[in-house]
Amino acid sequence: MRFVCTNSAAVISKDSVKKYLKSEHINTSMKTLYKYISGIESAKIINACDRYDIRGKRNLQFHKKEYIADPAFRTYFTTESPVDYSTLLETIVYNELISRGYDVKTGKTPDHEVDFVVNNGQTICYVQVTYVMQSQKTINREFSALLDIHDNYRKIIISMDPLDMSRDGIENIHMIDFLLGKKDIF
């Protein structure tokens, strides 16, 4: 539980969980790990987010990302590590998108990962989530993932930036406006 809850918004492989448990001097089988992780998913503590190949237009059956249903679980299980606000916001946005009834997957292009490919049943939207885009490195990372997609669907970055950083057809929505429903992705 601790490992899964402290690694929200990450690809959780059974091998990485097994290595973590081994470092804690706990030996277990892969079959047992599958049962535990499946049980944590069934209890709705975490949600598995499928991957989608944006260029190939197909679902990928491996490397699902796991998101905790309640970010308080991370706080409960970790007191020693600082909060990664980008991961926290990504988890909050994922849970909000799911609660709005959208079909949500993580996206993959040949060179980038896109946080979310969101489908409302009529169209799709690509969404990146970051805390703030203070450095040029962060700006390049967030925008380049979306600029790598060559179709006409809406592309959005959700962040806590006080200024609108929209450019090149990519919209920047403030996190609070998104959560309050003042601005939506569709």
Task: Write up what this structure looks like.
This protein has 186 residues and is of the alpha/beta class. Helices cover 35% and strands 27% of the residues. The protein has 7 helices and 8 strands. The chain has an 8-stranded mixed beta sheet, with helices on both faces. Strand 4 and strand 5 form a beta hairpin. The N and C termini lie far apart (35 Å). The model has no long low-confidence stretch (mean pLDDT 89).
What percent of residues are in strands? 25-35%
Give the beta-strand count.
8
> Cα distance, first to last residue?
35 Å
Question: What general form does the structure show?
Answer: globular
For the largest beta-sheet, the strand count, sense and barrel status come to: 8 strands, mixed
Tally of discrete structural domains: 1
Question: What Rg, in angstroms, do the CA atoms define?
Answer: 17 Å
SS class: alpha/beta
**Count of helix runs:** 7
| Helix content, binned percent | 25-40%
Order of helices and strands: HEHHEEHHEEEHEEH
In spatial order, strands of the major sheet run: 1-3-2-4-5-6-7-8
Averaged pLDDT: 89
Provide the low-confidence segments as ranges. Answer: none
